[in-house]
Q: What sequence folds into this?
């Protein structure tokens, strides 16, 4: 029995060691270097635009590069504010010069693991698109050196403000690279990432299409009812002072004024624990007239319509040139159901 136990223990340790060995080795963050551009950063979290901030990017550090049959994935560590290094993934399709590009931002909590998944990379680059991903502020590897009581929601103005600034800084970086088509940029945002996508699109005209999946918003309702917030903390987040700080970041405020050419909102009716039904309805009502929106009764219905990478098709279609084969094939696909469960109109 003792021998068997030792064998099992050895195999477990070996398996854990092997799995860690397969992960990219990321240099440990050092103390901020006062000589680097990011050391002099000044930032105003209260505004979405970078106009009142002065963020200066350090030279990007390439951590790992993977060349696969269908795509090339690059993992960078970038930084434009002291102590907040961002793991940025740039995935490009092979043999496509200057492809259209989509920024993918998932919500809180989330990690960068999906950007290392070959299946995700294949699906997002299929058809000749570049995919760029990172995680929001105070999320994943970006949550450190804070007391546990300070987290994404308790510091909501900072979390959202920083992340919207990050999107604009990532766009600046992509423009400097010169290997993606900055005239055809889309953004895919889920949960809090959807809120951030709406924020970034409201101030950055480089974003030509934005897809919002169950964004957080309608703050007075959301803070009062969302199950993301622990009950013992809720009283702190329903005060006028807290709500005032994030009022300008509310999709209910931003969406009616959004000038982005292509906008789509998808909601899951059973996502009530994260975004209450009442808040979902207020976000729907705020959409500009030209926007598409679709509601799914539950996750099963959503995945049956969007699995296999189809969830990425809409944003890709909007940023592809009309005469391309990808545009023609995507237009020919059966449209997703609209809010009443009937076939919707193909996006024009």
A:
């Amino acid at each position: 029995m003792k021998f068997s136990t030792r064998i099992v223990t050895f195999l477990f340790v070996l398996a854990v060691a092997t799995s860690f060995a397969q992960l990219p080795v990321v240099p440990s963050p050092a103390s901020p270097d006062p000589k680097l551009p990011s050391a002099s950063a000044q930032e105003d979290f209260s505004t979405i635009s970078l106009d009142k901030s002065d963020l200066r990017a350090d030279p990007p550090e390439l951590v790992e590069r993977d060349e696969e049959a269908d795509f090339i994935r690059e993992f960078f560590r970038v930084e434009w504010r002291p102590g907040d290094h961002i793991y940025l993934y740039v995935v490009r399709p092979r043999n496509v010069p200057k492809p259209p590009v989509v920024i993918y931002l998932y919500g809180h909590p989330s990690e960068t693991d999906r950007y290392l998944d070959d299946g995700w990379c294949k699906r997002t680059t299929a058809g000749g698109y570049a995919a760029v991903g990172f995680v929001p502020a105070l999320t994943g590897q970006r949550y450190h050196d804070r007391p546990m009581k300070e987290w994404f929601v308790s510091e909501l103005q900072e979390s959202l403000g920083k992340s919207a600034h990050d999107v604009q800084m990532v766009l600046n970086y992509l423009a400097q690279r010169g290997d993606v088509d900055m005239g055809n940029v889309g953004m895919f945002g889920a949960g809090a990432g959807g809120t951030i996508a709406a924020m970034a699109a409201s101030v950055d005209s480089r974003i030509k299409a934005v897809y919002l999946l169950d964004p957080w918003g309608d703050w007075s309702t959301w803070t009062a009812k969302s199950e993301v917030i622990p009950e013992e903390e809720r009283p702190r987040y329903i005060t006028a002072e807290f709500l005032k700080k994030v009022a300008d970041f509310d999709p209910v405020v931003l969406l009616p004024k959004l000038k982005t050419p292509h906008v789509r909102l998808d909601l899951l009716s059973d996502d009530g624990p994260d975004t209450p039904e009442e808040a979902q309805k207020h976000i729907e009502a705020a959409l500009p007239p030209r926007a598409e929106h679709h509601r799914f009764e539950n996750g099963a219905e959503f995945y049956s319509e969007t699995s296999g990478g189809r969830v990425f098709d809409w944003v890709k279609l909007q940023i592809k040139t009309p005469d391309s084969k990808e545009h023609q094939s995507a237009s020919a696909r059966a449209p997703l159901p609209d809010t009443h469960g009937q076939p919707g109109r193909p996006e024009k």
User: Anything to note?
Assistant: The first strand starts at residue 61 and ends at 67. The beta strands are 61-67, 71-78, 86-93, 100-105, 130-134, 181-190, 207-213, 262-268, 292-296. The radius of gyration is 21 Å. The domain at 55-332 is CATH 3.40.50.1820 (Rossmann fold).
